[in-house]
Recover the amino acids of this structure.
């Protein structure tokens, strides 16, 4: 399970928590302009926008979990097991495999509006990357540096692209139901609520944070959607890049999954393997991991974006503790 957001604080910050029970050897991967991108059904791209994000690399192909491009568009794939449905390639459609959709959109789209145009005739196919890497059941959040965002879901009904006024996404159920569910929590507030149940009674406020008394706190996707929406909508904007990216990671921490709390198989637990976020205007990619809470940064513009080869950085997992004495 996962959570993805776009956060506005002067600049826009986009990224996600990746919640799984096992890692896949993921790296920070930059796909430069001239690294050819092959697609099963679509034309090969010899030149395209540069991309940075978290990916595994197989056969020199970047299989992105999430990333941004140099134009300030971000995209993340999140688990959508159950509702997700992909189709065989269809004549007259732009047939894009699920594992290709992030590089395809980020290589071509300079805005959410352009991404929507690319998806207007799209069919997400059920092609596997390989026998060992079958198509994952996903849906996607796309956002850009204007703050616009959309949710993309391929279900048995076809491909749906929903405007996302919340700027957040988790997992099941389908996105329209997640929005409806928010109505159940419209009274949640950072402020202490008025006594409306029995105004004539002197009902004590016995704790701070009373306005969030009914805020969900579970690991399930509906609870995380509500909680991250509440946290994001009330998060402050800082006065510097450091303040803003710090606030951004605190938003994601509100729905972080700790080890030992979400059992997905006997003695096997899902947890937040990594959290990442990018400044969509500056092209700086930030991340931290479950075992290393230090914020690490890779600036795509400090690399040779005219290269023809993937640029990779190992994910830093070793915790660094500042010894003060």
């Amino acid at each position: 399970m996962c959570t993805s957001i776009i956060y506005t604080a002067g600049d826009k910050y986009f990224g996600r928590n990746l919640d799984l029970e096992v890692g896949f050897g993921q790296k920070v991967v930059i796909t430069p302009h001239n690294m050819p991108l092959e697609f099963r059904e679509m034309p090969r791209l010899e030149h395209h926008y540069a991309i940075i994000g978290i990916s595994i690399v197989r056969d020199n192909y970047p299989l992105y979990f999430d990333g941004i491009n140099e134009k300030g568009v971000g995209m993340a794939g999140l688990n959508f097991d159950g509702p997700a449905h992909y189709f065989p390639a269809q004549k007259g459609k732009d047939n894009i495999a699920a594992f290709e959709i992030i590089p395809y959109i980020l290589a071509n789209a300079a805005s959410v509006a352009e991404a929507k145009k690319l998806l207007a005739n799209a069919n997400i196919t059920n092609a596997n990357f390989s026998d060992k890497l079958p198509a994952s059941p996903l849906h996607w959040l796309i956002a850009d540096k204007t703050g616009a965002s959309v949710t993309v879901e391929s279900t048995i009904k076809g491909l749906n692209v929903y405007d996302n006024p919340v700027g957040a996404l988790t997992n099941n159920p389908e996105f329209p139901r997640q929005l409806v569910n928010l109505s159940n929590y419209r009274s949640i507030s950072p402020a202490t609520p008025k006594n409306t149940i029995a105004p004539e009674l002197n009902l004590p406020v016995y704790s701070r944070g009373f306005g969030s008394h009914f805020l969900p706190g579970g690991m399930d996707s509906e609870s995380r959607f509500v909680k991250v929406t509440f946290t994001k909508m009330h998060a402050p904007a800082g006065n510097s890049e450091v303040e803003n990216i710090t606030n951004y990671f605190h938003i994601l921490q509100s729905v972080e999954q700790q080890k030992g709390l979400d059992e997905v198989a006997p003695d096997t637990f899902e947890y937040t393997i990594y959290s990442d976020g990018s400044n969509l205007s500056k092209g700086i990619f930030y991340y931290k991991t479950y075992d290393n809470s230090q914020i690490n940064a890779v600036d795509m513009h400090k690399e040779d974006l005219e290269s023809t080869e993937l640029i990779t950085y190992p994910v830093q997992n070793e915790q660094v503790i500042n010894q003060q004495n």
